[in-house]
Amino acid sequence: EVVLTQSPATLSLSPGERATLSCRASQSVSSQLAWYQHKPGQAPRLLIYDATNRATGIPPRFRGSGSGTDFTLTIVYLEPEDFAIYYCQQRANRPVTFGLGTKLEI
Amino acid sequence: QITLKESGPTLVKPAETLTLTCTFSGFSLTTNGVGVGWIRQAPGKALEWLVFIYWDDDKRYSPSLKDRLTITKDTSKNQVVLTLTDVDPVDTATYYCAHRRRVSGNWDTGDLDYWGQGTLVAVS
Lengths: 106, 124
What we know:
- The structure holds two protein chains of two kinds.
- Chain A is mainly beta.
- In chain A, about 0% of the residues lie in helices and about 50% in strands.
- In chain A, the strands form two sheets. In chain A, strands 2, 4, 5, 6, 9, 10 and 11 form a seven-stranded mixed β-sheet that branches. A four-stranded antiparallel β-sheet of chain A has the order 1-3-8-7, with no helix packed on it.
- In chain A, a hairpin with a 6-residue loop joins strand 9 and strand 10 (about 95-100).
- The radius of gyration of chain A is 13 Å and the shape is globular.
- In chain A, about 35% of the residues are buried.
- The mean pLDDT of chain A is about 95.
- By secondary structure, chain B is mainly β.
- Helices cover about 0% and strands about 50% of the residues of chain B.
- Classes of the chains: A mainly beta, B mainly beta.
- At the A-B interface, strand 5 and strand 10 of A face strand 5 and strand 10 of B.
């Protein structure tokens, strides 16, 4: 199965700063990669699908890039509500797999 | 507006069968192309995809759990039911159901555009 490695495990930033999160796949997943935001006690939220496409209602400060094995989620200007855990997920190969997540903390 | 909510026991004994229900609104599992998935997350572990069920009753199971998992749907109630047999403490996790984003192609996989809040199940 495809292993997704996210880095860093924890990212400490302040509101207004830029966040760069990485997801590396153990084999090519083409552009079939998604990003999710998860806050404790809440439903995970799809941010980006197919590497670069923002999901419905996602603000433009969230940007996805990459293809093949290396992907990046950039939050260009951190808002207070952006501090959460972020997961990547691939759908190119069965079974669907997720990364361990990056915790974005203040 | 699509919403999903998981329900079921919070504690199950080893070797028993776990049954979880996903009740959803805002879409129909009779509509062509629609699917619902189950995903779980054990403490400190990655999210793990379990199964998809589709409008045409097609079911796609995780290879690692397919012998223990069963998924069914009740379209009149807008519900999907997941059963996991012979549970073990390693099955302790938060279980989520989610709406599969509608995309054609590989029905074995997909991403999830709406999720429930999850239900924590302990096996002990």
